[in-house]
Model the fold of this input.
Amino acid sequence: MKTLELRYFARLRDALGCQAERVDVPADIDTPRQLIAWLRQRGGAWDSELSGQRPFRVAINQDMSQLDDPIPPGAEVAIFPPVTGG
Amino acid sequence: MDAQVRISVQEADFDLTAEYAALRHGEQIGAIVSFCGLVRGWDGGVAMRLEHYPGMTERALLQIAHQAQARWPLTGITIIHRVGELHPGAQIVLVLTASAHRRAAYQANEFIMDYLKTEAPFWKQEVDATGGHWVDARETDQRARQRWEAEYDG
Done:
């Protein structure tokens, strides 16, 4: 197992009903793609919101990341909708 | 030359004149370009709520400033973005770019705004009488940013 700090923002946080959580994930979860698949197993909004039908972005330790980037142990992983500032 | 870089994410309003004065020093500056973004009103609109990702947002803005510095000879960059609840007509974002030359200051300013809109973690929620509605990202903003990548590759 490894521990990750997950954070959710904006529309996604509202839809998931979760702002932040600490999770223990199986040791073989190394990328955002694998983490997303694992979170979708929770079903409900987790499955529908993270299915890819609506776009989302992932940041690892506060850097924008791609779905196949490595997640270091203990990382802060944030999942959020495309940004709309400015 | 290292540019003077100032990044701020804040609830408080900003003062263009004061920020401009802070960048205007020395004899090497030939141009300062300023961009002020305002909250545009809409039918039934009451307010705009701005959320950010504390820590990452400041980091992302600093990275954008550094990218601009790498592409243009700038003497100063100021980026201020407001968060919280803002009403139509309010100032929301300020970008100042200072350089020896006008063209660099203009281009860097536009580059920073195009990247800010697609890379910096801010999210807008429009508030009307029925509640808050998250604003969807726009394809045109993505294309505006990609234009700079094409220019860089070419």
